[in-house]
Amino acid sequence: MKKVILGLVALFAFQAGYSQSSKSTDFLRWKMRLRVVGVVPDEKSDVTTIGGKVDVSNEIIPELDFTYFFTKNIATELILGTSKHEVKTIGSDISAVGGPTNYNVDLGTVRLLPPTLTVQYHFNQEKDNVFKPYLGAGVNYTIFYDIKAGNIVKDIEYKNSLGYAFQAGFDLMVTDKFFINADIKKMFLKTDVTVDASNLAPNLSIPAKVDLNPLVLGMGVGMKF
Q1: E strand or H helix at 2, and its extent?
Q2: CB atoms within 10 A of CB 7
Q3: Contact at 8 Å (CB) between 182 and 134?
Q4: Which residues contact 52 (CB under 8 A, 6 or more apart)?
Q5: Domains, the chain, ranges and CATH?
Q6: What is the pLDDT of residues 127-173, one digit of tens each?
Q7: pLDDT attached to residue 19
């Protein structure tokens, strides 16, 4: 985790230094955006021991991103945002601990921090164009933190993971420096989950593999500098 974060910091430090030393003055190399985004997980899961499937709540969060342009068309973007989700299983069989055969198990909440770095191609970059679309692809490293197991099980562990992402969007220029942005990202991320339910039965551990694969829909404003 530390290596990934340090790598991202080093990359943007390099870009900042390159920007300062560049003699090109025909376009601004940096963009910053502030968006409101909806995070919509598309879960797939394999829950052993008790069966059922994992359900993760949709959320709306703020997001900040920075874009650096190597050329007028090719850029890289670092996307920063964190979300808090409610987690539960649906249709689990907990008859072995005296419960029903079809039960939704509350697994509390967890926060996700998935810093995402994409490489983008921007179209219509001529100065007079108002509509400037782009496409991008890259990687994310998802960190699970502030885990609260709820009132049913004893504890939950989530494994951090490396994934990838695709995006499409556009900037709608209002002035030479300020713009409105719309963006959609499909992120592919997964985690191994271990539920400690030893409070319900001795040594009861419930492993699960969960693909989250959220769709991230954003709208916001930005500036060039």
Answers
A1: helix 2-21
A2: 12
A3: no
A4: 89, 90, 91, 92, 93, 103, 104, 105
A5: 2-20+28-224 (2.40.160.20)
A6: 899 999 999 999 999 999 999 999 999 999 999 999 999 999 999 99
A7: 46
